[in-house]
Amino acid sequence: MPQRAAPAQPLKRAEKKEVTRQQLIAATVDSIAASGFAETTLHKVSARAQVSRSLVNFHFESKEQLLVATLRHLTEEYRTFWMKAISRPGLDAAGKLNAILEADFHPQVCNRKKIAVWYAFWGESKSRPTYMEVCARADTDFAAAMEGLTAEIVAEGGYAVEPAVAAKGLRCMIDGLWLELLLAPATFERETAKRTCRTYLAALFPAHFALPAVAGTEAARAPAAATGGRR
Predict the structure, then answer these.
(1) What are phi and psi of 227, to 5 degrees?
(2) pLDDT in tens, 153-169
(3) Per residue in 81-128, pLDDT tens?
């Protein structure tokens, strides 16, 4: 006789609490993306999450507390995603920068809903010190990682480039391409966005990054591997 599957174990109280908390955060992301900050209320979040308003109040005493938790969740999710990408074994500095580009334009990170929420929080951060603090902490970690990688590449290749300036230029380019997805989703293409960034890197570090092939052709002009790293 075939064995019956073991019955699912009921969630422990702490696990159930965390599941509900994540449902509320996901509903908050959906609400901000659809309606913005002003129209996001605890009542609307509870409706989206399909839970009672009293349950929302049990987890979050105020809308502000829920918004801060949502921002912290997004920043930690993003940080975990790109750090996992660069921690794969065998990657050199150029390979890690390429991994960051793949992570930054991955649909899990680079989608219109999440970018709309990011920009909503960034827009509010000027007048809300807590948002500024959370965003600044995440930005500092990302900037430090990119500057460290560009410094390694500059040292390896002897390039006459300031690592911090090169890293800042790449970060600004990524931010601009995210904004393009938000404003013009019909014409945004992930592969074109990545080629744009790699063209910038190939111009700065030609021995480490291949110049991307023109769309429709098969080969790149530069000798370095398209995945990053020296030959």
Answers:
(1) -90, 0
(2) 999 999 999 999 999 99
(3) 999 999 999 999 999 999 999 999 999 999 999 999 999 998 888 788
Q: How far apart are CA 142 and CA 24, in angstroms?
A: 27
Contact status, residue 198 vs residue 212, Cβ threshold 8 Å: yes
Comparing 11-61 with 68-231, is the CATH topology the same?
no
Tokens in use for 148?
């460290």
Tell me how crowded residue 45 is: count the other CB atoms within 10 A of its CB. 27
Query: pTM of the prediction?
Result: 0.81
Domain residue limits, the chain:
11-61, 68-231
The dotted CATH code for 68-231 is 1.10.357.10
The angle subtended at Cα 208 by Cα 202 and Cα 210, nearest 5°, is: 50
CATH number of 11-61: 1.10.10.60
pLDDT tens digit string along 30-88?
999 998 888 999 999 999 999 888 888 888 889 999 999 999 999 999 999 999 999 99
